[in-house]
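fyi for ur records
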Amino acid sequence: MNQANSPRKRLAIIGAGCSGLITLKSALDVLPNWEIVCFEKSGRTTGVWGNPYPGFVSTSTKYTTQFACFMQYDATMDIDGAVTKSEFFRDGEYLERFADAFHLRPHIRLHHTVRNIQRSESGTGWQLTVSQSDTPDSPEVIETFDQVIVCTGLAARPKPINSQIPCLTLADLHGPGGLSHIHNRRIVVMGGGESAVDYACRLARPELQNKVFLSLRTGIRVSPRYHPIRGVPSDFLRNRLMLSVHEDLRNRIGQRFVECRIKYQEMFERFFPAQRNKQDLHSTSTDSSAEPPQRAAVRKDWSYRLTKGAKDSLFNMFHNKSEEFLDLVGDGQITIVGPPADDTYQQYRGFDTDELLDLSPDTIVPAIGYGPTLEGLFDGAVRFADFHLGCTHITYPDLYAVGFARPIIGNIPTISEIQARYICGMIAGHIPRTENIAAEHLANRAERSRRFPQLDLERAYPEEMFVYCDDLSRRMNTYPSLSAAGSLRTWLQVQLAPATTLHYLPHTESLQQQWRAAPIYMPWTLILLLLMLKPVDAVYRTWRYLFRRKAA
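which gave:
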């Protein structure tokens, strides 16, 4: 058949949040002759991440969270500490600007809900049952697509608990009326992730007069938004030299370093003073001496206890950058407790003690085990656990997922960008599908189980952001190697400047100029220590390789 008369292939993208938008943009770049449709059940192109509650401040900086293909911010911005937190996102305007900049809206069907996805009768392609979500009596329509990418994310559904005590839902917490209706209650928030801590902080606002408890099963790694070293955002101290050390060594040494940093924060601030901007706007968040003594003592004690409780692999498993909640702990507005003592959820263990506490809450907020809604779209016929690297299905070569990787350290938007470029390149035929994908998937799951033994791999794909992105970039031949940098000087700058997914863009002269212009915030004393660690890292990697080879 003449190609000009052949029907256009069709790609469906489910969801127009941050992962759906970057997937749509990536697909339009490499699939110019395809009909591409993005379905969004709401009336906005922001998703959950881009549609926060009033007062929201992201935990990752604008520089590290923005899409590499839509750079609006750099790492040389003035740093003003907690005065305005201007280095962090506060709303969804960035995603709105992104959709407009790349003319994505004509391809997005707002208020359209995908009810069901089934394999086409021919055995190839997919049938989508779609209805208009803003019209209750809207008839369902069935459309057929050659390829499907699901971008509905993890944030919509925490793991349910079986309790007689009323539980608050995400709708209760994110409703248009805010939290004014949740007051004068005894509330237990379950979970140690950033969403759980965020809920606890919001519910503990003094005007609500709630008594709030945060229930943790383990310790958590709480990183400061602004690091005591130099007073810059913690994101700006994470560079590729640090990330080049094997994660096992990095986490073991990192935990000891963090414990030392907590114990001797004043010394760190003295030896590595903050880089103040021209207006000298640094807040007390980077100056521990300005904090009330009683709060500072309680805050420091809990920061240390939580870190000590995150032993071994837990240190890299439960990472939290919402450090502001320690202020509320120091003020007595949030009380940290251990896990429930039984399935009545009335009594709880003390944190790192055998004490039994009768809390008798009248409200519970389960913020644990967030999982995908993906499986419901397929009536259980497709499992998230069968997506290799969290994005390519091992059985169906025309089914993909973006935005479901759970970043232990990192953020969802920029991970989604790397996934989207990888998947869309595969659909376009520019990137080969993984050979022996089923066998590699099994090996990958075994490694995930070793690294993250307490996480449910049926519900999420856990990974450290840059370790994961390095893997995908190598598969796309966009890894920032020495040859890609073009010179040793540029490559060294890439190793020492703040890590960013800008490093994974196709390597051009203009991009290399941007790499050379990036600032270096890590002190040279710490850079020297990392360089001294590299021989140990090489020995450890060799030992792991020989040990695994012998075991095989």
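DSSP finds 18 helices and 20 strands in the chain. thats all i got for now
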